[in-house]
C-alpha cells in the first residue's frame, strides 16, 4: 500500500505543478514559489520532490522544457504546459473535486 | 540537469542572503532544504528512464499475484486456452507441412511441374496420372526448353531392397535424369551428384544417397564414397551423399537412393526409347529472365506433335512447383480446411469462456479496483493491468498448448494418411508454426481480455467505495451474450460431430463383398535373391507351401491387397465383343492374382470358371471379369469366350465373378478384370512386373497367430527374400476409412471440449448471478418462498439462454449440414435430424450447469444475506 500512497502524493504535487504553469512558463524555483504564493503560504513544496516530479511530468508529455535565462542571469530550464498537460490538469481537477466531495460528505454525517 | 539544480540552489542562496544571512550560512540553509543533490539527481534520472518500464514490471507482478490468488479461475482459464491453442497449432503445423512448405532448395518459386492434358485418351498403358511422360517425350521436351528452363525428370521407385557392407535394408528411391540435382540447385554434401550425360546413354552405374541413409547404414563414414551398393540385385557405385534434409521432391515420401535414368537401368518399364509406358515425371527450374509464357507456348507446340498419336488436343502447362510434385496438396486441402474451421470454433469458445469468467471475476473485485482508481491509477493503467493479466493467461495456455500440439499433430497426420498408413512429412515446429502460435496467443489475449479490460477502466471510485457488500454488482449483460455465443458454436460443432459419427458408422457397415475376417496379408520382395531370376516358379512354390500349413484354408498371390487404395487400370486395345459394346472405349481395373484367389478371398464364380492349373505360362492367356464389367459394357450378356488385347497379347475371358470392392469401400464396384500371375510375367523387364506382390492367406485361427509359421515356410524356400508388411485384411479395411475415423474422433472430441467450456461458462454466469442476488433470495426465503419457486425461474433463465444460443446457431448449422452433405459419405442435406440430439444434449448440459447455483440460491440463509447489507 505504500506504493499506492506515494502515487497519491505524487498525484497532488503533479496537479499543483500543472496548475502553476497554467498561464506562463516558469523554471523550477519559480514554480515552487508560485505554489507557495497561490496557497497563501500554506503549502511549501519539498525541494527534494520538485525536480523528480518535473522530470516525470516531462516524461509523460504534460510539460515541455526549453532553455532560458532566469531573473538572476543564470541559465535555467523553463517549463511550459502542453496541450495534453492542459487536459490532464482538467482531469485531475475533476478527480480531486470528486474525492474531496465524497470525503466531506462522510465527515459531515453523524 | 546539474546546471538546473545549481541554478535553483543559487536562487535559494540569493534569497537567504537577501534575508540577512551570511553567504556561508545561506549556502548551508539552502542545501539543507534541498536535501541530497546527488540523490535528487538519481531520482530524476529514474523518473525519466523507467517510467514506462517500472510500471510495466509492477503491473506484471501484480497480475501474477492476482492470478495466484485465484487458482481455480487460473487453472480453468489456462486449460481451456491450452486446448484451443494446442489444437489450432497442431492443425496449422499439419497444414504447414503438407500445404505450405517449400522444398529445401534455393529459390523454390522458380520451380515448375509439367502437366499435360488431352481428350479421349487412348493411352496403351500409363502410370502416375497427368504429370507423367514417356522417356522419349521427356528428353525431347528437355531439349526444347534448354534455353529457358532446366527440365529434369524422375521416376519414384518404391520398395527397394538395398545392400551395403553386408547389411540388407528396405528403402524408397528415385530414378532421376542427370540434371535432377543441378536443376533443383542441390550440391552434394560428400562426393558429387550425377554428372551431365550420366542418364540416357550413360552406363548408369552411379548412385547418390540421402544424408539419413548415409548416417544410418554407412555410419556417417566420410570415406563412404566409392563403395558398392546393391539395389534390387544390381551393383552400383556410391558417388555422393546429399545434404541433410533433402528427401526428394514428393512430399509425404522419403527418398533415400537416387539412380540415373539410363538405358541400361533395370528399373525401366521398357527400352528407354519406347513410347509405351508413361512414368517419367517432369519438373523444371526457370532460368532467370526466362519468359514463362513463351516457354509454355514453345513446349506446347512440341508436345502437340509428340502426343498427337496418343490423344486429342494435347496441351501442356507449367504449374507452381514450390512444394514439389505431389497430389497431396490437392487431396488434403479440404480435410485440413475443415479441421481448421472446427479448431477455430473451439478457440473462439475458449476465448469467450475466458472473457466471461474474467468479467465475472472483475465485477467481484470491483471494490479493490475502486480503491486503486481513487488513489490515482489512471483509466489506462487499469485497462493495461487487465490486459496484462489476459496476456499472462494466454502465454501460459500457449506454452501448454504447444506441448499439446506436438503430441496432437502426429495423431492427426497418421489418421489423415488413411490407407497409406503414414504421411512421411517433416512435422517439426518450424518458425512459421511457432510464429502462428504466438499470433494466436496474442489474438486470444486480446479477444478474451478486451471486454474485462474496458469494464475495469470504467470503474467509478464512488460506486466501489460505497459498501463492502454485494450490492451494486453489475448485471453483466455482456456475460450473457458470451454464454449465448458459446452455446451457438457448441451447437454447430455437436451437429457436425453427430454427422461425422453417423457417416463413420455407415461406412463401417459396408459389405466389402467378401469376408474380411481371418485373412492374413504380407508382401515379398524377390530382388537380390535367387528367386528373383525365376519369379513365377517361386510364387508358385510359396502358394503351395502356404496352403500346406496347418490352420490355413487357402492361399493366393495378389498384386496388392484389396481395399488398400492400391489400384491399376487400363483399356482394351481391341475387343472381340465390339459388336455389343459399340465404339465406347473399354476401361477396366486390373488385378493380377494366383489361381486360388477366388477360393481364398471367397468370391463366387457366377459364369464359366475360375483359373486352374492348366492356365500355365505357355497355355492360351485367360482372364476373369466381374459382374460390374458385364453390366457396364455387355448389358448382362455372357462374356465367356470373348477375347481382348492388352499388353501386347490376346486374352480370353473364361469366367464372371461376383462383385467385390476393389480399392475402397466407398462408391460402386468398378468393372474389374483379373489375370493369373503365371501368364503375366512374360516380359523381359521382369523387375518392373510383379516384383513385390502380396500373398493372401485365409486362416482358420486369428490371422496373426499364424504369422511365425508363415514366415518360416516362406523363408525356407529362399532365405534371401524379404518378407514385409504383414497385416490382416481387417486392419487394411479399418485403415481405408481412416480419414472418416479421424474426423469423427476429432470433431467429436473438440465438440465435447466446446460443450464443456460452454457448460463451465454457463455455470460461472449463473453462479455469479445467484451471488449477486443473494440478498434478494435470502429475503424471499425469509418471506416463505418455496425451493421450487426460487429454483424454477433460475433454471428457466438458463434454458432461455440455451434456447437463444440454439436459435442463433441454427442458420450456421444448417449451412454446415448442406456443406457436409455434399462431402461426407451417405450424408445428405436431409440429415438435419442431427440437430435434435445436439439440442437435447445442450439443454441437458444447461440444466446441469445451473443446478448447483440454483440450489445455492434456494438455500440462501436470510440472516447472512441481510447482514451483508
Q: Describe the largest sheet of chain B.
A: 8 strands, mixed
Number of strands of chain B: 25
Give the uncertain stretches of chain B in residue-range form: 122-129, 467-472
Structural class of chain B: alpha+beta
Secondary-structure element order of chain A, N to C: HEHHEEH
DSSP helix count of chain B? 25
- Number of DSSP-assigned strands of chain A: 3
Which oligomerization state do the chains in this entry correspond to?
heterodimer
Task: Please state the CA-atom Rg of chain B, rounded to the nearest Å.
Answer: 37 Å
Strand content of chain B: 15-25%
Q: What's the N-to-C terminus distance of chain B?
A: 56 Å
**Average pLDDT level of chain B:** 82
Query: Termini separation of chain A (Å)?
Result: 28 Å
Low-confidence stretches of chain A: 1-9
User: Largest interface, per-chain counts?
Assistant: A-B, 32 and 31 residues
Mean pLDDT of chain A: 81
User: What is the molecular shape of chain A?
Assistant: globular
SS-based structural class of chain A? alpha+beta
How much beta of chain A, percentage-wise?
5-15%
Q: In angstroms, what is the radius of gyration of chain A?
A: 15 Å
- Helix fraction bin of chain B: 40-55%
